[in-house]
Write a structure and sequence with these properties.
The complex is a heterotrimer of chains A (281), B (359) and C (339). Chain A is α/β, with parallel strands linked by helices. Chain A is 34% helix and 24% strand. Chain A has two domains: 10-237, P-loop containing nucleotide triphosphate hydrolases (Rossmann fold), CATH 3.40.50.300; 248-281, no CATH class. By secondary structure, chain C is α/β, with parallel strands linked by helices. Chain C has two domains: 55-159 and 287-318, Response regulator (Rossmann fold), CATH 3.40.50.2300; 161-284, Response regulator (Rossmann fold), CATH 3.40.50.2300. In chain C, helix 3 runs parallel beside helix 11 and helix 8 crosses helix 9 (242-255). Classes of the chains: A alpha/beta (281), B mainly alpha (359), C alpha/beta (339).
Chain lengths: 281, 359, 339
């Protein structure tokens, strides 16, 4: 867990995105360093997906700056982001379920052999490489021909992470990798996040679970309604504070008052704002 | 396959590579025969064999070599189009304009050559450009608008149907094209698109050869090339494919253009086999192409299928259609027989793959 | 999405350029035979123009689009309209209910006359009655021989399908045929079934029926080939449309069958085939005449109160036989697509 003082690989400077006249994201500052896990937290609709889409090249920002290696960029396709070493692993669209594991592993970056008219996939080599890389990450599969859709959610995430690492990603964006997983599988995925960081990658870990974030994170950014609410490194923030930010402390207090008026809920039993700690998730 | 909590990746610190590789033990290797049977093209193969054997018994003339050549000819004209339609379907899209596009191509070639009194090859090339352009338009509109291909190609289907008729009428004054048999280059073009050759005293149509060549090519492309990988990916999950850098737009548009190429080829066959083309033909054929692809194991929703399956699908169609005639059954029931046989064959197909994949 | 699309046209440019260049190169080698140049630049039928007041006539048929036969009917109607100073509104729909809507449409437009085909008379009964009630003269043509009088139509022009079938069947007896095959290109079409039934009635030999898919010529060819193979005793093929006859000729040729071919209806290519003996003869119902008379009779009724057939008997436009003996005379007109 060494925090290097290198310059950031990816940097956002008061970046924003508007879809027509709907402002999804506004004034976001973010620095992603190698060897660090930068966690982006936020509730549904906070603008997390918009943020990922800008960095991964699916959408373009409409305000502010987006820099890679200190140079401003504007990606028009995910391919361009990939070429800069920015790989994204999506929670639900990480893979093509009906395709075999090895084809998924190399999808979009297939290995080929032979001259043009008969240039073909190097299936042997791809299968071997995929198997080797997966074993490196500690994933053992009997049959790489099985459709990836038959793997468990955690395994699919791990294959996608192994894939990104293999293809020389310098920045790995993980979109809610633990959202749909059980406790045990989440632990496995977190382990791979740490493994990826230790290999020198800058990891952007998107989640709405502060506990997961705090386990691996070096830096924390909390988004709310499209703007940055908190931007702090690990030593500046405690798990309690993080949880409180995520749970929306002030909003909960307001909600408590409303509930009291509507149905006469016994608000005395509800915790005070300051008590809102680890119990909320 | 039941994935439950035990589906936990074994985390090993030192990677266990080498010959005696460890196995996670969940995916028990199933017997080879069963794994083979689970492939969709094997199901349709058995369905085709069943239909073939059935007519071999029920219709004595089928046993003759020339009858077989005739059945294969009928199958090939469906099959050549069913191939690109199948690839497109694997890529997650439909093309309802495929049937009339064949006629558009034939009309274009015939009218261009005839009206300008030029070598028929000029018409053939112009027709190719037009066919590819129609395919491009379909694909371009689809990716541009994000509309479902059903709607986009239904639109093209109707447009082409109207244009076929109106332009033919406008240009020739009739609703069919003029005979181009006596024009320069006709014999040459006929040799390529519509000739036949002798195999042991049986006249076999050249379209049968083209059909098999195209099928082999499509199979190779689908399984062995990058492009094939992309076809499966854009049909299986377009967004994931895009996210990992697959050129989705290129793949989709080029698939529609492949259908355009197929339409061009079959259109040229029809033109050089029958010398003239009626502008109202081709309607309804698109469904037969789609049916051959689906019977051949291509998933209607995209992402799965093969190029060899539709070959058997088209053969099954041709076999049933001609087999009923060879059997000399009451023609009033023709369509009903056709439907029952196809359903039956498809059910065999389904039953085989269900049995094979059952644990 | 639109942005990712940019590279493609760039890749396409060379392809288009190559195609264009190829076209230009090939343009140098124009065909020395055939083609438009070889076609006689002959104008269609034309006559003077009537000075009667402009009137509007709607022609509503059950024709499928893009069919040569129906196109000839339309041509006849158009020529009559031009001559009679008539504005012709042509519409067609194969579905009876939609055809009825088209008739209603004509009534709404307050046309001066309606010419309609009664392929499915019951479906059109109500709307025809409406037109008659609105004082619009209605005449029938092509289909509806048994119904036109009951529905209050002024006249009827057409051919009785059964009678022409019978005539063809009788003629087959003269040529010595023993076993005929009647090829039907659309399953469930009343007029086609009547033709086959007529052939069966008039022909002393055996008549079989075969259904083919008229929208797909390769399949028409394969199916006829299969049938000839299955039953080698067939010595006569009867087709119900000209393009099917020409395709049947290929099938006969391929199977080495001795069968001769006779057909209903004509077209340009068929004339050539009759000339060189590939096709034995054709029964023509003179579609041009049907279209022409339908319009002309409405004009006569409006301007001079005439009824053709006196409102009692249908006017028969067929059957007229075309064989080697008269093909040369008729061929001139068929080449223009008017016969």
């Amino acid at each position: 867990m060494t925090t290097t003082n290198d310059s950031p690989v990816v940097e956002l400077r008061s970046t924003g995105k508007a879809y027509g006249n709907i402002r999804a994201l506004h004034g976001v500052d973010l620095k992603v360093f190698p060897n660090q896990v930068t966690c982006v937290l936020g509730d549904n609709g906070a603008g997390k997906s918009t943020l990922i889409k800008i960095i991964s090249g699916l959408h373009q920002h409409t305000e502010g700056e987006f820099l890679v290696d200190g140079r401003p960029v504007r990606f028009s396709t995910p391919r361009e982001a990939l070429d800069k070493g920015i790989a994204t692993v999506y929670q639900d669209l990480a893979v093509v379920p009906l395709m075999p594991v090895w084809r998924n592993f190399f999808l979009g970056s297939e290995m080929t052999k032979g001259p043009w008219p008969v240039r073909r996939l190097d299936i042997e080599k791809m299968k071997k490489t995929a198997d080797h890389e997966l074993r490196e990450m500690g994933i053992v599969l009997d049959d790489l021909e099985q459709p990836i859709g038959t793997l468990s959610g955690g395994q699919r995430q791990c294959v996608a992470i192994a894939r990104a690492v293999y293809f020389g990603a310098r920045v790995l964006i993980l979109d809610e990798p633990t959202a749909a997983l059980g406790v045990k599988q989440s632990g496995v995925v977190l382990k791979y996040i740490a493994a990826a960081r230790d290999r020198g990658l800058g990891v952007i870990f998107i989640t709405h679970n502060p506990h997961h974030a705090y386990m691996v994170g070096d830096h924390f950014s909390v988004l709310r309604l499209g703007t940055m609410e908190l931007n702090a490194s690990r030593d500046e923030v405690s798990l309690e504070e993080l949880t409180n930010h995520m749970a929306g402390g002030t909003e909960l207090t307001a909600l408590k008052h409303e509930l009291a008026q509507v149905r006469g809920v016994d608000v005395e039993e509800l915790p005070e704002e300051s008590d809102l700690t680890a119990t909320a998730s | 396959m039941g994935m439950t909590q035990q589906a936990e990746p074994a985390v090993t610190t030192p990677p266990a590579s080498g010959p005696g590789m460890e196995r996670d033990g969940r995916t028990k290797q199933r017997p080879l025969a069963l794994r083979l049977l689970a492939r969709p093209e094997i199901g349709v193969f058995l369905g085709a064999v069943a239909v073939f054997v059935f007519f071999l018994v029920a219709a004595p003339p089928v046993r003759d070599g020339s009858s077989m050549a005739n059945i294969l000819y009928q199958s090939s004209t469906i099959g050549i189009m069913a191939l690109p339609v199948a690839l497109l379907m694997i890529g997650g899209e439909f093309d309802l304009s495929a049937g009339v596009a064949v006629i558009t191509s034939a009309l274009t070639a015939s009218m261009t050559a005839y009206q300008l009194s030029m070598n028929v090859w000029v018409g053939v090339i112009v027709a190719l450009v037009v066919s590819l352009a129609v395919g491009f338009f379909n694909g371009w509109l689809l990716v541009k608008t994000g509309l479902p291909s059903f709607l986009v190609t239904l639109g093209t289907f109707l447009i082409l149907q109207g244009v076929n008729l109106a332009v033919t009428k406008l240009v020739t004054g009739n609703v069919a094209t003029d005979d181009i048999q006596d024009m320069d280059g006709f014999d040459q073009a006929k040799a390529i698109f519509a000739s036949s050759f002798d195999v042991g005293g049986v006249q076999v149509k050249i379209t049968v050869v083209w059909w098999l060549v195209f099928a082999a090519l499509a199979t190779w492309v689908l399984i062995r090339t990058k492009y094939g990988n992309w076809i499966f990916a854009v049909g299986g999950n377009k967004e994931s494919a895009r996210a990992v850098g697959v050129p989705v737009t290129f793949t989709k548009i080029s698939l529609f253009m492949l259908v355009g190429f197929g339409a061009w080829f079959v259109g040229m066959h029809q033109l050089f086999a029958f010398n003239t083309v009626q502008s109202g033909e081709g309607v309804g054929q698109e469904l037969i192409y789609i049916a051959a692809a689906v019977i051949g194991g291509c998933l209607l929703t995209g992402g799965a299928g093969s190029a060899i399956g539709p070959v058997f699908g088209a053969f099954m169609f041709g076999m049933v259609q001609q087999g009923i005639v060879y059997a000399g059954w009451n023609p009033d029931w023709f369509k009903a027989f056709l439907g029952v046989m196809l359903l039956g064959a498809t059910l065999i197909n389904l039953w085989v793959s269900r049995t094979a994949t059952r644990r | 999405m639109s942005r990712t699309f940019l590279p493609l046209p760039r890749r396409l440019v060379p392809a288009v350029a190559v195609a264009a260049a190829a076209t230009l190169v090939l343009a140098g080698c124009s065909s020395s035979s055939g083609g438009k140049k070889a076609e006689d630049a002959d104008s269609g039928v034309s006559a003077g123009k009537a000075t009667t007041p402009r009137m509007t006539i709607a022609m509503v048929t059950h024709a499928p689009s893009g069919d040569t036969f129906w196109d000839t009917i339309r041509k006849g109607a158009e020529v009559a309209a031009a001559k009679d100073n008539v504005k012709l509104i042509y519409s067609n729909d194969e579905t009876a209910a939609d055809q009825a809507n088209l008739v209603q449409n004509a009534i709404d437009q307050k046309v001066d006359g309606i010419a309609v085909t009664l392929a499915k008379p019951d479906a059109l009964k109500d709307v025809v009655a409406k037109a008659v009630k609105a004082g619009i003269p209605v005449i029938g043509f092509n289909a509806g021989m048994s119904e036109w009088q009951k529905q209050g139509l002024l006249s009827f022009f057409g051919q009785d399908e059964t009678i022409s079938g019978e005539a063809l069947g009788t003629k087959l007896d003269d040529t010595g045929a023993k076993h005929a095959l009647c090829v039907v290109q659309v399953q469930g079409a009343v007029n086609l079934e009547q033709r086959c039934a007529g052939v069966e009635k008039g022909f002393k030999g055996k008549t079989d029926k075969l259904y083919v898919n008229g929208a797909d010529m390769p399949s028409v060819k394969s199916t006829i080939t299969a049938k000839l193979k299955q039953d080698s005793s067939i010595d006569q093929v009867v087709t119900l449309a000209a393009p099917v006859a020409l395709t049947a000729a290929q099938s006969v040729d391929e199977t080495g069958s001795k069968a001769k071919i006779a057909t209903f209806d004509l077209n340009k290519e068929l004339i050539a085939a009759i000339k060189d003996g590939t096709i034995e003869f054709a029964v023509d119902q003179q579609p041009y005449l049907q279209g022409y008379l339908a319009v002309d009779s409405l004009w006569l009724y409006k301007n001079n109160g005439n009824y053709m057939g006196g409102g009692e008997a249908p006017i028969l436009t067929g059957p007229a036989f075309v064989d080697k003996s008269n093909v040369d005379a008729i061929g001139v007109f068929a080449a223009k697509g008017t016969r």
